[in-house]
Amino acid sequence: MSKRRKTYFFTVWVVVTVAIFVFSAIEPAHAQRKSIRWATSSTGSYGYRVAAQMVKVLEDALGGEYTVTVNPYPSTTAAMKATMDGEGEIGYTADVGMEELYDGEGAFKDYKPRKSKMVHTWYAYPMESFMAVYAPKASQFKSWADFSGKPVFFTPAGFMNWLNFKRIFKALGYQFKHVQISETAQGDALQAGTIVGAVCYTTAGRSLPSYWRETELRLEIKIINPSPDEVKKLTAAHLTPTEIDATKAFSKDVGVKTILGVPLQFGYNMLADMPEDIVYKMLKKFYAEREALAKADPGFIPLAQDFVGMQVKGINGYPDAPVHAGLAKFLKENKAWNDKWKIAGK
C-alpha cells in the first residue's frame, strides 16, 4: 500500500473515531431528557388550551430535564383512561370524573386500568355549566324542565360538563337525552332544530371554550336559567348554582344579566407512581406563576386569588380518592392539610 493511501486511511480512521467519541458524549444528555405526556380533551376545548399554555411553565419547573407534549383525546373521560392505561403521565379530569371513577359508575363501570387510578394532584380552575338555546326559539323554554326528554347537545359525551349535567338531571328527576355531534356542528344543529338546546360552560365565570365562542359569534343565543324551584332542588343535592355576569362571558346580549351555572372543579391529575419531587416542584412553580397565569388567561383568576384553597376544593369534591404525596407535601407546608384525607401509597 502506498504511503499516500496509508495516510488517507489513517485520516478517515481518526475522523470516525472522533465522531463516535463526540456522539457517545452527546447521546447520554439526550437520553436523560425524559418525556411527560399530558392527556387532554379535544383541541377545541379549554382543557387542551390550558395544557398547551402550561407546557413551558412545567418544563421550566423541572429544570429542562423533561419534554412535555400535549396529547388530545375525544373527551375528558378518554384522557383519563389514556393516563391510567399508561399512555400519559398527566390526565385531564374534574371532581365529578374522580367521583365516577372511584365509584365505578358510568364510563368507569367494570373499568380496570392497566396501570392504576389517578389521584388528586393539581386543580386549576372552576367551570360552570348552564343551558343555551337558539334565540328565535327561546320563548319555548322557561326552565330546565323544558329540556327533559328532548334532544340536547350536553357537550361531547364524556366531557366533564356532560357528566355534570347528567348528575344535574338526575337530581332534578329529568330525562337526559343526549345527541352526539361535533363541536363545530353545534350552531347548525341549533338552527335546524336537530337539538333544542346546548350546554355551555364558562371557566371562572369568564372564558368560553373556543367552539362556543365561534357559536355565539355566528348565532343569536339566549340563556335559559333554572327556575327557583330547580335551584332549591339542586342546592339540596349539593349542586348549588353560582352567579355569572353574562357580560363577562359573552360578547352579545344573551337574554339575562345573571347566568346561573352549576360549578365543578377541573384539574390535571396523575398516578401515584409519579415521583413526589416532580409533583411538588410543579405545584411550587405553578404557585409562583399564579399572578402571571391570571394575566394571560382570566380563567386562572380564582387560582391566583386562592391557589391553596382551590386544591382543597378539588380534593373535597371527592375526598375518598387518595392525594398524591407531592400535593400532600405542598398542602402541609401551607397549613391546609386535612388528616382525614389519605396520601396515595401510604
Instruction: Tell me what portion of residues adopts beta-strand conformation.
Output: 15-25%
- What would CATH call the architecture of the largest domain? 3-Layer(aba) Sandwich
How many domains? The number is 2
CATH topology of the largest domain: D-Maltodextrin-Binding Protein, domain 2
Could you spell the SSE succession in H and E letters?
Answer: HEHEHEHEEEHHEHEHEHEHHHHH
Question: How is this structure best summarized?
Answer:
44% of the residues lie in helices and 18% in strands. The chain is an alpha/beta fold.
Key structural traits:
D-Maltodextrin-Binding Protein, domain 2; alpha/beta; 18% strand; 346 residues; 2 domains; ten-stranded mixed sheet
Folded structure, characterized:
- The chain is α/β, with parallel strands linked by helices.
- It has two domains: 31-125 and 266-333, D-Maltodextrin-Binding Protein, domain 2, CATH 3.40.190; 127-264, D-Maltodextrin-Binding Protein, domain 2, CATH 3.40.190.10.
- Helix content is 44%, strand content 18%.
- It has 14 helices and ten strands.
- Strands 1, 2, 3, 4, 5, 6, 7, 8, 9 and 10 form a ten-stranded mixed beta sheet that branches.
- α2 packs across α10 and α10 packs across α14 (325-333).
- The longest helix is centred in the N-terminal third of the chain and has 30 residues, at 3-32.
- The protein is globular.
- It starts with a helix and ends in a 13-residue tail after the last helix.
- The model is unreliable at 5-31 (pLDDT under 50).
